[in-house]
Structure formats: structure tokens, C-alpha cells
């Protein structure tokens, strides 16, 4: 993509993260201390198990290097603001979902460069390998992800009523922008989208189904409440695919790396419907 398109993608994600910040308070971070077991299980699923599942899938399922790297970028990303809405609709523990999203969004600023750097080295041939500037990537992530969230939180703390009124509109704009980014990426790669879907469809579907299932099962094994288990499942399987696409386009400057995230978006919304039905029926 050209510089203007990349700028639009970056600004769009900043608006999305600002909208998420409007819904966060300091209490969402304090919950790490108040509910350590639930938070720890959720973070292990997101930050440890999900990348391992992604790596295992692309190792044993033959996919092109660009798709493999794209799946690893996706697996390295935290849950997005969408996960909080899905957890709410599925009658999960919304507060836990919000806290996991908040904490994971901070931690992954530092874990994403490690996973992406490893993936490029492992899956790309020596001739086509790019050198990843980890420091530059962290600065970009801080600028695009963390700072907008902090601004949103500050606005909520200083002008709560205004932030509450503004939150719904920002979420609508953010959703529209995310859809626009995804459609734009698919349009740009329209000539290859069917072959890409054939290549990435199976591993992205398995990534989603396994991460959702494992998130729920591990939570139940450790005797968490059903509502908490649903939230951990959602946070494990509903990734911030907008961030993954942004990393592909802005940081790595390779739209092909974003295809897996675009395909995953379609799959995760389908699975979200299933878990919402599960959460509402299984009471």
C-alpha cells in the first residue's frame, strides 16, 4: 500500500484503540490483583498457548511462508475491543474480559516483536528475509495502541459523562473503519483471495476453534465460574485482527501478511455467534 493508505490504516487503529480506552478505568487493571487466578489463566491462554497453537498448525499444515507469518502475527495479538462485546452478549464475565484485553494489550507491545521476529527468521528463506527493527516496532505499537488507549482513559476519568456519550459513537466509527480496512485489504489482494482462502482457511479455522475450546476447558479445569470461562474462551479466540493487519501493512509493509487476519475475522465472527448461543443456552 502507498503512504496515504498506510496512514489511513494507522489512524483507523488509533481511533479503535481510543474507543477501547473510553471504556477502561484503573479498576480494570486492579482486577489483576483482585482476581489473580482468572487473569493468569486468561493471559497464559492468550500470550503463551495461542502462539504455540499457531506455530504448531503452520508447522504441520503446509502453507506459504507469508500465510504462516500472518497467522503468527495474528496469534501474537491480544483480544480486541470486539471480544468485550461478544463476552457481554454471551453472558460471560464482561469485567474480566475488559481486564484481560487491557492487560494483554500492554504486554503484547513487547511480546509481538519477539514472535514476529522469530516467525520471519523461521519461515522466510534467507534470500527474502527482512530485518525487523524491534525497537522501531515497539515505538510504533506504543504510538498506535497504548497512547490512544491512555488518552481515552484520561478523558473518561476527567469527563466521564462526555466520554460515556462519546463511547458509542466512537465504537460505531471504529467498527466501520475496521470493516473498511478489511474490505480494502481483500480488494487489493482480490486476484489472489481465493487461493489465499484455500491456503489459510484450514489453519485459521483450527486456530480459532482450538483456542476458543482450550480457553474454556482450561478455565473449567481450574474451577472458574462458567461466566469467567466464557470470557477467557472469547479472549483466547477473538483476536485484534485490526492490529494484525496494521502490523502487516505499516510495520512490515507487506499486505500479504495481513490476509490471514482478514480471513480470520470472518471465521471468528461465525464462531462468536456459536459461543453467544452457548452462553445464553447453557445456564
Question: How would you explain this protein's 3D organization?
Answer:
The chain is an all-alpha fold. The chain has one domain (3-281): Na+/H+ antiporter like fold (Up-down Bundle), CATH 1.20.1530. It starts with a helix and ends with a helix. The chain has helices spanning 3-22, 26-34, 36-60, 65-76, 81-89, 94-123, 134-158, 160-188, 193-221, 226-237, 241-251, 259-281. The protein has twelve helices and no strands. 83% of the residues lie in helices and 0% in strands.
Summarize the structure.
With 283 residues, the chain is mostly helical. The chain is built from 12 helices and no strands.
How many independent structural domains?
1
Which spans have pLDDT < 50 for at least 5 consecutive residues? none
In N-to-C order, the SSE pattern is HHHHHHHHHHHH
> End-to-end span in angstroms?
47 Å
User: What is the approximate shape?
Assistant: globular
SSE blueprint and pairings:
Elements: H1 3-22, H2 26-34, H3 36-60, H4 65-76, H5 81-89, H6 94-123, H7 134-158, H8 160-188, H9 193-221, H10 226-237, H11 241-251, H12 259-281
Helix pairs in contact: 1-7, 1-8, 1-11, 2-3, 2-6, 3-4, 3-6, 3-9, 3-10, 4-6, 4-9, 4-11, 5-6, 5-10, 6-7, 6-10, 7-8, 9-10, 9-12, 10-12, 11-12
Amino acid at each position: 500500500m502507498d503512504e496515504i493508505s498506510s496512514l489511513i490504516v494507522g489512524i483507523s487503529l488509533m481511533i479503535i484503540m481510543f474507543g477501547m480506552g473510553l471504556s477502561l478505568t484503573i479498576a480494570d487493571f486492579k482486577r489483576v490483583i483482585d482476581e489473580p487466578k482468572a487473569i493468569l489463566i486468561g493471559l497464559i491462554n492468550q500470550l503463551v498457548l495461542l502462539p504455540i497453537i499457531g506455530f504448531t498448525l503452520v508447522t504441520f499444515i503446509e502453507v506459504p511462508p507469508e500465510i504462516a507469518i500472518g497467522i503468527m502475527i495474528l496469534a501474537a495479538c491480544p483480544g480486541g475491543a470486539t471480544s468485550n462485546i461478544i463476552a457481554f452478549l454471551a453472558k460471560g464475565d464482561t469485567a474480566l474480559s475488559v481486564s484481560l484485553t487491557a492487560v494483554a494489550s500492554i504486554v503484547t507491545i513487547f511480546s509481538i516483536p519477539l514472535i514476529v521476529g522469530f516467525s520471519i527468521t523461521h519461515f522466510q528463506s534467507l534470500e527474502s528475509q527482512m530485518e525487523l527493527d524491534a525497537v522501531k516496532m515497539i515505538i510504533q505499537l506504543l504510538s498506535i495502541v497504548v497512547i490512544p488507549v491512555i488518552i481515552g482513559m484520561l478523558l473518561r476519568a476527567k469527563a466521564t459523562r462526555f466520554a460515556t456519550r462519546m463511547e458509542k459513537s466512537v465504537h460505531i466509527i471504529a467498527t466501520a473503519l475496521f470493516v473498511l480496512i478489511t474490505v480494502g485489504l481483500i480488494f487489493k489482494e482480490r486476484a489472489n483471495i481465493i487461493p489465499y482462502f484455500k491456503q489459510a482457511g484450514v489453519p485459521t479455522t483450527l486456530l480459532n476453534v482450538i483456542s476458543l475450546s482450550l480457553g474454556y476447558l482450561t478455565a473449567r479445569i481450574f474451577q472458574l465460574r462458567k461466566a469467567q470461562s466464557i470470557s477467557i474462551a472469547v479472549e483466547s479466540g477473538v483476536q485484534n485482527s485490526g492490529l494484525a493487519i496494521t502490523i502487516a501493512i505499516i510495520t512490515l509493509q507487506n499486505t500479504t501478511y495481513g490476509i490471514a487476519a482478514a480471513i480470520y475475522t470472518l471465521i471468528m465472527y461465525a464462531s462468536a455467534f456459536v459461543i453467544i448461543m452457548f452462553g445464553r443456552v447453557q445456564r
